[in-house]
């Protein structure tokens, strides 16, 4: 006889902690396949970043890292300094596809940014194969020319931008 736990699939999001770095590193490597690998897990515990993990059955199954807006005295030097908040990485383990882990992480990033009083826009770059996915999450493409004119920074390819909305407004937007 099987005892099926109705809460086994429940996913919750929390702040990433130092002891999560190994699991987050595994997620980053699984998602990026060494193509564009960066040690995003090193942002955990680093000031000026928001790092979240998705937990299921007491295991880290997703990770997101976001560069927060700088202090007013900060002198921007490049794209990642100007276009903030900037989601540097969102990913989940390949076997957990279809469980809305990435969406949950993006939604929590937006809610945390609103709570911190951050800018209403959040930026990210994505691979061609993920454009439709991020568009479903409310991100809109802005080309290099528009980025340059609006933000006075040069980018090689376009970016995606989304307005952060309250949970209730976002669910109306997604339906």
From TrEMBL:
Residues 11-160 form the N-acetyltransferase domain. Gene3D superfamilies: 3.40.630.30. InterPro entries: Acyl_CoA_acyltransferase, GNAT_dom. This is GNAT family N-acetyltransferase.
